[in-house]
Specification:
The structure is a homotetramer. In chain A, 31% of the residues lie in helices and 18% in strands. By secondary structure, the first copy, chain A, is of the alpha/beta class. Chains in contact: A-B, A-D, B-C, C-D. At the A-D interface, α1 and β9 of A face α1 and β9 of D.
């Protein structure tokens, strides 16, 4: 493994620690590796070493390249400086993708506590959106982040349709950052139709990092220590994983349905299709009984593809419906 | 294992399937076992067999007595009939506790989908509250449950201070019951200061039950299948577990802090103590610098016990503060 | 779940406890289920309840039908009486396969301690061999079993080419049955070319059963409790698993190579092919450099299929070699 | 993390890659860390990169310092050169223990394939024995290692009373190094009374390393990938683990009984005590019924401590027996 230490700003003490694994050779099928950018916490006052290297190791084991970003703090942290540090990091990684054996469209970010705030801002507000974000006991609410950095923004109100899939974890009894922060992030992702996974473990104090006993010996619910492996499996679900023969397609992909595609499609929800003039007309012709038979709440989440499958519609008909849908524009905002 | 089939109402087709394990003999230290009541789903139209026996087995393995409740459906389900079926079940279990080797104050309930709605009602509205509730892809919102049973109540608005600890799990891409139901339950638990654990897995359709491949072969995120073992570990955290020598005390207990105890105590949060006249006076005397130094969000969750520990206050002083607190009444509503 | 209690011999107190799950209905694709026969231990003096029901539950959860055999003990156990109890059990299960929703060619047996001896005898000496055997801290050696039942046979010397795949687990510090018993079983399986999996955990006393804390509270290595789930995954590897759409083919099957097939084939090992006149001639023609280039130890285990793959031989040539091999008789004992 | 690259021999291309984590600071309670020395495989012809860095990461995550040893190969590998490389490595680590934040009496070694041979030689033949050894699909038998390095020694015949605890894993269908190598190592450890843990997984080819999909995409039994986490838990059992407050005592320690201590003691086995003149006399006086009541096989493994516990002998008597035992010399070879 090659290691580098890159100073992004001497004045502001901003740096990248870079851990680069080989590609090619015995790892021949892996021409480029996905990336995890680690953003430690520390209340925008310091960057915790316990949320730096120890977090890098599970992703290195899984085959990722890892960059640890130590960002602008204290007097240097006037917003949007920390977010600009992130933007610069992504720019640098993408510009050196070949040198660093990096797949430039497979960059995940992970942040903890205040670093989770910065990671969540990256997911929702940055120019260089990551492909996935992992948020560990994050500071999310404006009310809460202002205790640490008055200029920092509220996150839930910034969640938009371009927000990347998020993996949010915390402990319900966090004794420093109220768990309501994590809950409000999940609320916003849910409300905006963004993909997410969320684990809130019953018991444990703030700052558990990986949950390894070498880092913490406080009492916490044993399930907590599963988050790192779970997040790696989740990355394979939404961003794609790594096989020795190359990167794999994501098992499910970053979207929860097809409602935001440029044309209508089989993965649109029934409610969406029925609210779209072109979709409504098509369904009235092809599936005249569809409207009204589904409970409204179900229609909000079930896709046409699932409906056709459960109704055992033959594949030729499905294909015909799909082609008709793909011809209907879906770029007008609802 | 002894099995019984008890008809609670022939007319309404309500029944209990009872799986009772031995206590004593080779299991001598286990004089009485905790209980899990399983409530299958089915939209208040049927009770799914896939959410009945298969769910019983992991809890039986862990040493629990298991009761499967098949409750009032369809025309018989006018609210509160299903909840009354639950109340009758608990009454019966408690009245036969000795016969069935049951610890009557260690009863957990688990429900799925519409059965999750009923379990959540048990947790929040019943006379015989369970000691813990596990809610699998539950129907929670009034809007949603009314699609299936118009007389059934909204749950989030009913979460109260007596609500038992809840373990809520679902998949983000549930294609029948919107995941917002689970999210809203977590919101309400969080807002009301109730203990909970929550796992929302990224991908998977409605009705996955245990996630065993013998029950489902649809594609879903592999983490899903961990919920059953995780729920058993969680029960040990909040309700207590089982050792061969007898039942164990809960590792953490059902409360997240001491704010609801009858007197003030070390596990009250700083914000709560500072808002209480007697607590404020005591802190002003004993810890004059406490007020104002903590970020407001942190003060909302950190306990006095943790503050004293982090400040390395000596144990004699801690003891004195504790005794002073325990003499201060906390039964006046805030 | 239907339960039955069948007395096989009133005089000898031999019985079957039967746990039968539904097939069809909501489990429609599962027309017949595989079977696990549980054989508790107890030194041929009693049948331990701790190795009966608690062992049944994980297999029930995985979708198996489970039968608990309480076999001939003490004065009634003169060999081969216990083995005959086993034979009768298998005969009964197969004769009632339709009634009990059983796949009659997917029967696994699991035994513990002395019950592990009986299960190992079933795997190696019975007329009705199981399809797989799971042996928990088994008594295996003649020297050891004679301490409990002088007429009972030594197992390792009975391992033959028809022995089914075995999953052997034990603790290295077993304080009643020396771990050498398990080790000698593995030795014999290895020497006879039989498929197996083996887990010997560092620390733990005799009789841990499932390792659930409700059954034991003695100190043991935490890995121990993984054996049940591991054995279920192993059954899917060697015997086939269960999906909601029906039984699945085994991922790997019950054999470690093709040396025992009726004709030569690509899965024969290189050493075996080179020792077979017909195989040697074929290889000399098709792969003249094969003989002598492989280290002898490697030649003993690598198959021709792997050699051709690593040498990147084109698929047409592979097909031609395969057809030539399948025409060569392999029924003469080496 | 600090990284170093140390050339041990330029001529023979022998090197150490050193990964050193901080002690003190935020990891304040961890004054010195235990060590894992990684020895990659490659038939004494090369050192596989797939068994180097990827193996380091899980131990780094668990808090270990990691050293990767690339040892003498090919013409430079005339025995005992590779073992001397190992000896030099241990000497260097111990001499720089303070600089590298190392606990010098907590050094484990892990080797794969031919590197597993070298690690097994370290465990059995070296002057600087490790405290624990992890052997992954190792070459063990003289017959087998001679295919790769004719001067290298057979291992099983070298297992002695000073051999450290070993964790041995392999796949039963290894297609390059016969699994009999691993089995013979377990045999020898068992026969010599050495502590071990062993996992032989049913299916998988040679060279799976960590089992991460980024390293291999060949088919293998899913249990395989558990070995790394299992080995870390095992190290805590036999060598001691790491908490944030410092190193922990081993849960069980490196011995399976007290037979090799300098005096008799309660952890001697009954058979050993009865074969020792002083022990026999003491037992005849204190526990006159002990001799003859235990089955011989059980007497070989059960300790006096367990016997007294199962017989519910009072603690005062136990104490008296213990003191009498500790006065009896046990340094004469049996």
């Amino acid at each position: 493994m090659q290691t580098e230490y890159i100073v992004l700003s001497e004045e502001r003490n901003v740096s990248l620690t870079v851990y680069i694994q080989a590609a090619g050779g015995e790892f021949g099928g892996v021409a480029a590796r996905p990336v995890v950018v680690v953003i430690p916490g520390g209340g925008y006052h310091f960057c915790s070493d316990r949320e730096a290297d120890p977090v890098a190791f599970p992703y290195l084991k899984a085959g990722y390249q890892v960059f640890i970003l130590r960002y602008s703090l204290n007097a240097h942290a006037e917003w949007p400086r920390p977010l600009e540090d992130y933007e610069e990091t992504i720019g640098l990684i993408r510009s050196r993708a070949a040198k660093w054996n990096v797949a430039p469209d497979r960059i995940a970010v992970i942040g903890f506590s205040a670093g989770g705030h910065l990671a969540a801002c990256a997911a929702t507000m940055s120019r260089n959106r990551p492909n996935a974000a992992i948020l560990g006991y994050p500071v999310i609410d404006g009310d809460c982040v202002h205790d640490y950095l008055p200029s920092a923004p509220d996150v839930p109100s910034a969640v938009d349709g371009k927000t990347c899939p998020c993996f949010v974890f915390a402990t319900r009894t966090d004794n420093l950052v109220p768990v309501s922060n994590a809950v409000h992030m999940v609320d916003a992702l849910c409300a905006q139709g963004i993909a997410f996974e969320s684990h809130i473990y019953a018991n444990g104090p703030h700052g558990l990092s990986t949950g390894d006993p070498s880092i913490n010996d406080q009492a916490f619910s044993g399930r907590y220590a599963a988050w790192a492996e779970d997040s790696i499996a989740w990355l394979a679900d939404v961003m794609g994983g790594i096989k020795s023969t190359g990167l794999t397609e994501p098992a499910f992909g970053p979207k929860i349905n097809g409602n935001r595609e440029k044309t209508l499609n089989l993965d649109c929800t029934m409610k969406y299709l029925l609210a779209h003039p072109g979709g409504k007309a098509l369904l009235a012709e092809k599936l005249p009984r569809a409207e009204g038979t589904l409970p409204p709440a179900a229609a909000d989440v079930i896709t046409l593809r699932d409906c056709l499958k459960y109704a055992r519609v033959d594949s030729k008909t499905v294909k015909a419906i799909e082609q008709a849908l793909l011809a209907i524009d879906n770029t007008q905002e609802g």
